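Researcher: Structure prediction, please.
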Amino acid sequence: MEKQAFEVKITILDLWRIFVSKFFIILLGALLVGGATFAYSYYTYEPVYQSTSRLYILPQFQEIEATPGVYSQTLTAALNTVNDSKLIIQSPSTMQKVIDELDLGISTAQLSENVTVSNSDDSRIIKIVVRSNDQALAQKIANTVAKQGIERINEVTGIEQANLMDAGRLP
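Model: Predicted structure follows.
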């Protein structure tokens, strides 16, 4: 028995006709997928806003004779002061003062999860970033953390060395 080979020729016109005949099914599928995606994102997505405050930490100057290595020691002392200041701002006592002032009704751990305190290398600028689902609340918390942070830094170190550089703004 011999097998017969069939040769089928499909032209572009044939493909176009198939596409046109199935166009409404393709369109309906695209609309269903698009609608489902929109509904999912509309009902499950909560926007997160962030507001940023910046503090400038002044170095603790002392009268030191000009000797080799003094600049390095002064820079190291200034950076240590910045690191200490970051820890003071992140401390539970500072976070509790923020909670009390704004009457937030959350724990210090919950507030700390939404507050990030950082500084770039070799800088005396501390950046406080607050994330919240409410943009006005993010701004209030950022400004209050900065204010309470300045007060706590000055209280703990005994020297007024922190200044507000930028207040938080509405995102």
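Model: The beta strands are 49-57, 115-118, 125-132, 162-166.
Researcher: Thanks, that helps.
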